[in-house]
Amino acid sequence: MNELRKDRIEKRLNELKQTKSWLAQQMNMSLQSFSRMLGGNNNPRIDNVIELSKKLDISIDYLLGVSEESTIDVSLKDISEKTGLSVKSIEKLICYKNNKLSDRKLKALNLLLENNDLLLSSLYDYLSIYPIGETYGNHEDLNRSMLDYDKEKILLFELTEAAQGFKSHLKYEFDEQYRNKKIDELELRIFKENLTEEEIDELSKLIKKLKNYDKDSLI
């Protein structure tokens, strides 16, 4: 069995705002015995590892350094391993799914993932100029060479081009049948619902925009 990752246990204790003494007490161990277990001189007993996982609410694989994800939620862990997404990213997607106000964000993500690898690739290339975790605009940014700035400009141009291409793709895919159906629905709303003049004006503008739509216009 792998040795326990002491750094990960300490990190989790910090998150819980607890101490090693507290954890030793939870494990029904003396602080001396607990410290010995973390020392790494001997392989930990499996029952202690299981209990440690329960008390800290993190996975056994994470405790032993086998996995980078600490969650004990098997489904999230499986999704993370299959997709490469972090558990935090997956949880955010779930939050979008459960929140109707975030529905448009999910639709946008699906459009990107399903339709345009070039845009995502260009975005990755542009963001990869900066080390992960670097803060934009700090004093270290001044030490970047002119070559870095030139590369940034080129990649930003490519990203912009990819975004324009993706927009054209969306316009082309805008379905004629859906457009006509939406026009009918909006006109019916104006006819049936007790709307204010302002609401009628807004809907009328939208109807006009939809009627004048062509593949070279903005959606």
UniProtKB/TrEMBL annotation:
GO molecular function, one term: DNA binding
Domain HTH cro/C1-type, first and last residues per copy: 23-63
Superkingdom in the source lineage: Bacteria
Name of a matching Pfam family: Phage_CI_repr
One GO biological process term: negative regulation of DNA-templated transcription
InterPro entries: Cro/C1-type_HTH, Lambda_DNA-bd_dom_sf, Phage_CI_N
Coiled coil: none
SUPFAM superfamilies per the UniProt record, alphabetical: lambda repressor-like DNA-binding domains
PROSITE patterns reported in the protein's UniProt record: HTH_CROC1
Name the record gives this protein: Transcriptional regulator with XRE-family HTH domain
Species of provenance: Faecalicoccus acidiformans
